[in-house]
Amino acid sequence: MTSLDKTIEPDEPETHAETEPEIEHEELAALASTAPVGGSVSDHIHNYWQRVRGGDMGSLPAVSGLILLTVIFSLAQPSFHSLFNLGNMFTEGTATIFIAMGLVFVLLLGEIDLAAGYTAGVSAAVMGRLMVGYNWQWYLTIPAALITGLIIGFIVGWLRAKVRIPSFVVTLAFFLAFQGVMLYIVNNGKGQKGDLSLNDNVVLAFANSQMPLWLGWALGAAVVLGYAAVKVSARMARLRRGLAAEPLGVAGAKVAVLAALSFVMIYLLSQNRSLHKTAIPTNVNGKIVLVTPPKVEGVPWVVPVLLVLFVAWTFLLGRTRYGRHLYAVGGNEEAARRAGIAVDRIRISVFVLSGFMSAIGGIMIASNVSGVSVQNYAGNTLLLAVGAAVIGGTSLFGGRGRMIDALIGGAVVEVIYNGLANLVQGPNGSSVQFIATGIALLLAAAVDALSRRRAGASGLA
Amino acid sequence: MADQPILELRHVNKSFGPVDVLKSVDFSVYPGEVTALVGDNGAGKSTMVKCISGTYTIDSGDYIFEGNPVHVHAPREASALGIEIVYQDLALADNLDIVQNMFLGRERVTGIVLDESSMEQSAGETLASLSVRTVKSVRQRVASLSGGQRQTVAIAKAVLWNSKVVILDEPTAALGVAQTAQVLSLVRRLADRGLAVVLISHNMSEVLQVADRIAVLYLGQMAAQVRRTEVNQQQLVELITTGGSENVNLAATNGASA
Fold first, then answer.
1. Given an 8 Å threshold on Cβ–Cβ distance, is A14 in contact with B139?
2. Average pLDDT over chain B, rounded to whole?
């Protein structure tokens, strides 16, 4: 404990008050509540840099990696940054992100859910079987898939929390068993056997249809205005109580960056990204006529679904009692228990959330490939999702991580996957993909472990 | 200072199977005073504290709080009465900041949303009211704090919740000289605010320096409960090691007569 004494660095920049760093014993707890409008922009940046140096890097490695990889692939392979490929990456990569978002909850407790991939598979198979065998409508089959995910999550969580089997073993067992369950569902029951093909418009719409252009822009505006509103109201609440608030410049810059990113993306997605833009000769009723292929433009429908869940889970983690307790259990289970937190209930709940998100991921995979087939949920579905969460900056040791990690990490994973698929074609294509993604995961885990050690040494964690 | 004990145990027994750990123990804690609880390893200090905190239930005897007999069966019930225990291993979550730790399990919310600014303000005020000046920002993560600062946060947490009795389990065991002094002066300030403080410690000079009363447990029995002014270090050591001392008139000082 004495090693922690030496370095006491300012940590959370939001509340940093202007003090003189030299006089350690006069640094006031009181100041935190009585300081005038705190911290200049340069203080703020300085504090952030101190945290990064102290090992609290957050999403920084993932964001840098994302930018670097995008540049490399764009230079090596011009088709990588084509509009068609951009739209493709959105619909392909989001399924991983849904599952990764569920895994963030599990990882925050220092647990693991190896069954997430096949939970997605079983849920999608339930949906598929009900559709092809029993003609159920989407408004029944989607809830059925979600409930399947919830039940699976509850069983896993119960076995972990109450029977106290390590989550690695429980979920490894389910990883094996669910493979069989999924096979059974697609090969038995009424209707088509083997690979189930879906033709429900709503289920297919997530990955294959786009929002009207105006709605895409409206969505972007709503996101940016909502974020700005949150910033403003938080600032006003703090100033009202005389607490140090984030400098206006920093808050403004964050909103501006978000606005720029969203609107550039929406602009790009609003272009016609169809590979065939000009009319092509087509045989219509025995006559050859020129037919212009339908435009592919707009934000895919999967994006608003992703955004709604992302906002909801971010709110849950950061602004509610439940989220606070989740972090506490991940940080120090004993402390949480003594504070009266129902640790077992929290532990079960994270697996339930993971099961739910896996089910959504499963539906999105089914939507993307227009069917349910075991191979689409095999091994790497899970591993890419775990990779996404960890690459994004969620710690494998518990207690540290945010929902945004799943988004950023998922983008990195998708860029690697998609970029390499275009770059290295032929028989060794997928071998290179696996190796590269494995290396990225290893790097991320190494950054996590090293930053943790560094944080321990510098007193920041 | 105060005549009525806020917390009193009378003839309390506790045994685990055939082992009698507490044998007819009397113990009184007064508001505005620091009561040191000393005794050798295995004397029953931890068991007694766990009986007070509700982790263990007493077998027989009376548990009297603010003059009324009460039955405490769970830690929550003890907290509800206003009894807070600050454990040796601290029970703070490293990945949370000071405010989050101080309000852990009792967060303030408006609707379902955490009321961060109100919690931050109260945490800051509590630390300031205890004259804690060693903490840079209340939004610092606990992982970045020194041992003394962590102890301070844990104690301030008890104050924040308007506890009436604060029991500190060896708060200075892991601390250096300067930090020990800081924590002891904080202990003194707690008592000066009118709280009843129970200090469990193995360090005799520390006990003699800060305590108003000293209770000595010896093999599960209360060997003596005396005023600080009535003993010196040598007598105290004798009481702890042998359960008695020739120079202390135990009959006159034991129990309620103090």
1. yes
2. 84
